Amino acid sequence: MALLHDQEAIQLAGHLSALLAVTDELGLDAMGDRIAGQVARLRSAPPARHAGRSDASPAALHRRAHALAGRVLVVAASRADTAVAILAAEAMDAHAAALSAPTAPTVLVGAP
């Protein structure tokens, strides 16, 4: 049973690390710090933070983060990790809200 627990912790830390990379790319520092704290707890070491940027649109990044947070939630629930489950649910809500927020129309300067 201990081996299964360790495998679940590794899997959870991996999903959290993927979520952290996308969260950092979106510039969501507060959420990223919370995710990094949970990765550090699971791995007993701080995670490497994502420094690179992709060419993905913010909407694509939010969709990816929402899906990753869903995976985190499933694994966290299966191992009864309440702190991570709550964090994942909050992340899912935040990314869903970002995706459903109306976008401002583009206005060209000097256009009638």
Could you characterize the architecture of this molecule?
By secondary structure, the chain is an all-alpha fold. The chain has helices at residues 2-26, 29-43, 58-78, 82-100. It is globular and about 60 Å long. The model has no long low-confidence stretch (mean pLDDT 88).
Global geometry = globular
- Name the structural class: mainly alpha
Average pLDDT, rounded to a whole number, is 88
**Largest sheet features:** none
Rounded to the nearest angstrom, the radius of gyration is: 16 Å
Helix share, percent: over 70%
- Number of beta strands: 0
Q: In percent, how much strand structure appears in the residues?
A: under 5%
List SSEs in N-to-C order. HHHH
State the distance separating the first and last CA atoms: 69 Å
Oligomer: single chain
Write the layout of secondary structure elements.
Layout: H1 2-26, H2 29-43, H3 58-78, H4 82-100
Which terms would index this structure?
112 residues; mainly alpha; 4 helices; globular
Quick synopsis:
By secondary structure, the protein is mainly alpha-helical. It is built from four helices and no strands.
